[in-house]
Amino acid sequence: MKTGILGGTFDPPHTGHLEMAREAKAALGLERVLFMVAGQPQLKPNSNISPAADRLEMARLAIDGEEGFSVSAMEIERSGATYTADTLEELKRQDSVTDRYYFILGWDNLEKLKDWHQPLRIIENCYIVAIPRKGYALPDTEKLEKELPGILQCLFLLDKPVIDVSASSIRQKVRLSQDITGLVPEKVAGYIRERGLYKPNPL
Ligand code: ATP
Q: Does residue 115 fall inside a structural domain?
């Protein structure tokens, strides 16, 4: 089985995440895509991210009704720092039906992959599927290979979709009481409203 993994903070999950997962699934013939919800991300240590329980629940609401999509709490349940390199190995140990993993990320993160924890362990254990991100140029493959030898042998550089949405812009809109219709699935918008997420703390 071919399994895609879309790792993210999902604060909140948005239509960009769904579109990139759908495109990767179609382009590479993936049977399923796991939305891997991050614990406290190592590269965003100072950010004020929402509680894991909220991000997990929003991810579940976001994928509701999407064939082949599921949510994993593996990184949230692991104590201490969580690294993609460990996650891939843990998945491999637990899952006997997958023979190929495809880690899906945006072009913005492809450029940063070399700075992730033990990136060589990551590319030894999966293919990388990189999705365009508005504002980011086509990655320079020669430079990527120089910085992370072996990456080109496992990289699928897709040229669509291009979706101009980010979790940070959605949080900003909610903070300013602006409309987020169409940027997140309706059930996620409802959850954000109900829980009062991204609103400034009352004084
Ligand atoms: P933030 O704005 O808070 O940085 P984000 O929108 O990038 O958040 P994450 O949960 O951090 O959301 O992203 C998970 C993965 O999805 C990352 O690999 C990121 O590059 C990718 N991604 C998110 N939005 C898009 C998008 N619109 N186009 C392409 N890739 C995206």
A: yes
The finding on whether 50 has its CB within 6 A of some atom of ligand 1 is no
What was the pLDDT predicted at 48?
Answer: 83
Q: Is the dihedral of CA 95, 97, 100, 101 positive or negative?
A: negative
CATH number at 27 reads 3.40.50.620
Distance 171 CA to ligand 1 centre (A): 13
Whether 84 lines ligand 1, by a CB cut-off of 6 Å, is no
Predicted TM-score of the model (pTM): 0.95
Can you give the residue range of the structural domain that contains 45? 2-164
Report the alpha-carbon distance of residue 38 to residue 149 in Å, rounded. Answer: 26
For residue 89, the tally of other CB atoms under 10 A from its CB is 15
pLDDT tens digits for range 151-181: 999 999 999 999 999 999 999 999 999 999 9
Cβ of 98 less than 6 Å from ligand 1: no
Q: Tell whether 197 is covered by a domain.
A: no
| 190: in domain | no
Instruction: Say yes or no to pLDDT of 27 above 90.
Output: yes
Structural domains counted in the chain: 1
Distance 131 CA to ligand 1 centre (A): 10
